[in-house]
Write a structure and sequence with these properties.
By secondary structure, the chain is mainly α. It has one domain. The protein has helices at about 5-35, 40-70, 75-120. Helix 1 (about 5-35) packs parallel to helix 3 (about 75-120).
């Protein structure tokens, strides 16, 4: 069997599995966390959470397309395993970085909102709950 074809047959299911699992876990657990940050504004949280879910899928699809377009010729099983490991590890690191960036951004937003609430005696006008003012 052609080792490039075997590599693709191993890579695609692995990447789809990673993409779906990571996206669903973040979507499910992130909602609960974001509801707390955004004062149980479920409509807003669901909208943001769905955008993040779609973004996760788009990042993964784009990564797969880039990798397949630049896939080097595989001539041995050890090379195939190394190539697969490198490509899968890279997207795992990218997804982790995006995840922590999202968490950091939401924490910063939450801290700014709570600081503003402390300065105003606990009152934050409704129109400022979802803005960066």
């Amino acid at each position: 069997m052609n080792l490039n074809l075997l590599s693709y047959l191993l890579f695609f299911p692995a990447m789809v599995g990673v993409a779906v699992y990571v996206a669903q876990v973040c979507h499910r657990n992130g909602r609960v966390w974001m509801l707390r940050i955004f004062d149980n504004d479920a409509a807003f949280v669901d909208a943001v959470n769905n955008v993040l879910l779609a973004g996760c899928y788009v990042v993964n699809a784009g990564y797969i397309a880039l990798v397949v377009g630049r896939w080097e010729a595989v001539t041995s099983v050890p090379q195939m395993l190394g190539t697969l490991s490198n490509h899968i590890a890279l997207i795992l690191f990218i997804l982790a970085a995006l995840h922590y960036t999202n968490i950091g951004t939401l924490l910063l937003w939450s801290n700014m909102k709570h600081s503003k609430a402390r300065l105003t005696g606990g009152f934050v006008p409704a129109d400022q709950h979802t803005t960066n003012n």
